[in-house]
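User: Fold this; tokens only.

Assistant: Input:
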Amino acid sequence: MNAQLLSSLALSLFFSIAFAQGPSTSELLNDENESDNVVVYGMGYSQQRHSTLQKINKKTVSSLAPKWIYSLDDDRGQQAFPMVYDGVIYFVTHDSTIAVDALDGKQKWKQKIEYDKEALKYTCCGVTNRGAAIYDNKIFRGGMDGKLYAYNMSDGELLWQADAFEDIEDWTGLAMNVAPLVANGILISGVSGGDYGARCFIDGWDPQTGKRIWRRYTIPGPGEVGNDTWPGDTWKRGGGSTWLTGSYDPELDLVYWGVGNPGPYNPSVRVGDNLYTNSVLAIKPASGEVIWHFQFSPNDPFDYDGNNEFIITDLKIKGETRKVILQASRNGFFYVIDRRNGEFITANEFVKVNWAEGLDAKGKPIESSLLKKLRSTGEEVTVWPAGTGGKNWSPMAYDPSKQTAYVNTNHYGFTYKYTKVKYRPGLPYFGVKFDFSWDKDTPYRGYLKAIDPLTGKARWKVPQLTPNYSAVLSTAGGLIFTGTHTGEFIAYDKDDGKELWSFQTGSGIVGQPISWSHEGKQYITIASGIGGLYSRFAGDERLKNVPKGGNLITFGLLQ
């Protein structure tokens, strides 16, 4: 081979790497069916977190072992969703964006955000990040300071930076730790801050330039539909955080995005349904137009949010195949909603519930005597589930072939009573006093459950002394993967919940596992690094010796 040809091939290779344009729109749309890459949060727009790969299965999982461990050089909780594209894993921490070789774990590039440390003192709610979006050779991530960053996937070069808070006079309490989503060519982002009395929103951006295209406030202002559900000017500090990534139905061209709790927690000062808190919004990605909404918990006193992920699937109900979204809500009910029009189909308790006696035909809660007592007197009650929810933020998995959801649930309550409501910038906006309340009849504070979405009943459950706050991964190999606060990454038999394999990662797991393949070999990647609400505030003695420190770990079968 002559020198001129070698030079030409080298130049061609350079340009193919430097100017690679991916993942494309078609690759995003096909993410659930293509196993070599993971390019959409939740392993596909439907957020089923179900892998079709079968090389790691019930028979082979005993030989699963780490292939590499990468230090994240960070001692905060590692909650982010890893992305894989063309042999590279992309991962974010609260301040770093990282690309590592998927096969050997060697760092390719790393970019760090330098925050104003004073500003971080007044942001809601925990310094963390839950992931990025990748599209058109760009990786997009948010920052705690409300900045949105776009980096070149090839070399980490900063391509543009936008400020979601630049036109907000006082953004005290707001933060951006949500993983963005690219849907129909629009980059969509949300914010945290409802617990600190901020009025929250969803933004749509041009992914090429960082120009904001639209903004949708989740708390309607004067003249907007729903503002009459807020007395006086309470809408100004109404909350409605948008801190978890939505799902997208390309056929209907609708994004389903959850909205968080109202502010303050004390509902006596904001009598009404308080739209659109504790709701799901069906949004046109190009315009931010809300096509329909469904509210789970009107006038919520308990921080039940509506943010938990929405799984897109089709279910046969009374002889008819329905296009639905599923949510295991923090309020303790497992919902099935028609995703075309927001029609309520059914919802059933999947954990202990005492704040409601059930739901009416339209899905509105029938309040229990306990909740009525709280509303009328403000005196202390013990409510189930706790404000952290029957399920907290950590996403469930869904196997469409079995029509079963695999969910990490909580088993504890909260004591609640009203206190004086006072807004203080940069501090929690509660107006209630609350504390953890444990079930004295059992040592278990959580369960991994295989749930029938149409009944809420568990087909099997695995008790946990400390509740799991890791996401769940389902595989066609008959396995369920999840992690524990005490550091074990575990594989369970999907059919009966039997533990088949475990690996101690060295720190608590509050992250999101994925599965992917390369040259016919299957791999599983998870981040380890304890953090989050439960580990910080529950006072669980079992966690006092769990060390901090983040790692990204990839497992494969021993060959």
